[in-house]
Amino acid sequence: MEALYDIYLDGVWQGSRRTIAQCAEQVYYTVNRGKILEEKRLAKEKEKQDAAAFKQSNIERTRNQEAERDYSGVEALIKQLIKDNPKNANDAKTNPKLIDWFVGQVMKQTKGFKPLVVKDMIKEALSGVAEKV
User: Fold this and answer.
1) How many domains, the chain?
2) pLDDT (mean) for 26-47
């Protein structure tokens, strides 16, 4: 209440014709402005978090859909590529960038499979070759 009275007296002293209601509104705004701004900031932050969570859920859903696809043909293609290119397969164990060569070969022939999923499949196939050798 003191703040309200002080604002009212300031207005009277400066020749302003503000009413008590106008002074009360100014006090309310001044006191609550920090709270309102904080609530807006928190709302924006929550909105960003929700958007990031939505994006992440879309990525996971896409990966799950890819996991449900029939990859038996791709697995056979990968095995054939490893069989036809044993030197590259052995070099890929020491140089992981060569795995991208295998991914490129698979992508050329399949057109439409996700490269990350194919890369994981190639890594699994190459680790299986390493265990057999």
Assistant:
1) 2
2) 79
How far lies 17's CA from each of 9, 10, 20, 28, 66, in Å?
11, 11, 10, 19, 71
Give the C-alpha distances (Å, rounded to integers) separating 73 from 23, 28, 78, 113.
Answer: 77, 69, 9, 11
- Based on the domain organization, do 47 and 78 belong to the same domain? no
Q: What is the pLDDT of residues 84-102, one digit of tens each?
A: 988 888 888 888 888 898 8
End-to-end CA distance of the chain: 85
Q: What pLDDT does residue 90 have?
A: 87
Annotate 12-50 with DSSP letters as a single string: HHTT----HHHHHHHHHHHHHHHHHHHHHHHHHHHHHHH
Residues 27 and 76 in one domain: no
Distance CA 133, CA 125 (A): 13
What CA–CA distance (Å, rounded) separates 39 from 115?
42
